[in-house]
Amino acid sequence: MNIQKSFENEQEGAIYFVPTPIGNxxxxxxxxxxxxxxxxxxxxxxxxxxxxxxxxxxxxxPLTSYHEHNKREKTDQFVIQAKEGAKIALVSDAGMPAISDxxxxxxxxxxxxxxxxxxxxxxxxxxxxxxxxxxxxDAFYFYGFxxxxxxxKEAVLTRLKKLDASIIFYESPFRVKDTVAxxxxxxxxxxxxxxxxxxxxxxxxxxxxxxxxxAWTEKSELKGEFVIVVEGTxxxxxxxxxxxxxxxxxxVAHVKHYIEKDGLTSKEAIKQTAVxxxxxxxxxYQAYHVENE
Length: 293
Ligand code: SAM
Fold this sequence. Notes:
Layout lengths: L13 E4 L12 H9 L2 E4 L2 H10 L6 E3 L5 H13 L3 E5 L12 H9 L3 E4 L5 H9 L6 E6 L4 H11 L5 E6 L4 H12 L3 E6 L7 E6 H10 L6 E5 L4 H9 L7 H12 L3 H12 L3 H11 L2
């Protein structure tokens, strides 16, 4: 167990997770600027990129890199520095650190070492897109980037298909069209929203059915950054999926399932299997007895 009181003993070190704008520089908060100005060191995914942001706000604190390839050593180093009283501020290229960006390992390491983790609220593409999508916001599931290979995408979507919640994906403009096609194939003609270039001059929402939005991707030039938000499963789909729970089983396995899992007699199981599969009882009986004699 770990209890953190973020604002006790403020002279102690801490690691701050500071969101930066996803396009519009006005989306940085006063507090984010204050923390960046007070930081012992600012750790950035791409220092050249962050330098531009810091120059714009006239922040000159020391800057260091923190990315996929050095995060192991840097994590240890930041935790030690914070233990000694340093204020480390982590930023990513855009939006919230640790959301499809480096940062979560640093949170875990800090917690393990009893170093304060202070997360500032701020810009995040997923939440903006969800709210603007017009889809359900009570329950949602953030997936981030789907795998690139079609087979792997399909495997993920088979799992997500049953979710009764809006689903949020990040995607590169080069793959949006193919991804929408796979989403349509796997999830059916649900509602979908593409949120493009959020907070920027060419911000755009493309809202419609999968069929409509896929047609749009086929005739449009897909440029800029995209978030994809997809409607969750409907109750009718869920019921249908439940009704067809046996579709991956053969006839005999279907009968055995009723016997072994539901405690039905073989006679009852054969009858129920025949009803489910809309088959003559005799056919199920024969299949079952041929294999079990
Ligand atoms: N940490 C970021 C956040 O909090 O949103 C996400 C970083 S992830 C590496 C980058 C992806 O976020 C992009 O490929 C795109 O899918 C999405 N994204 C970032 N900025 C965006 C914007 N202005 N409009 C639409 N999508 C954006």
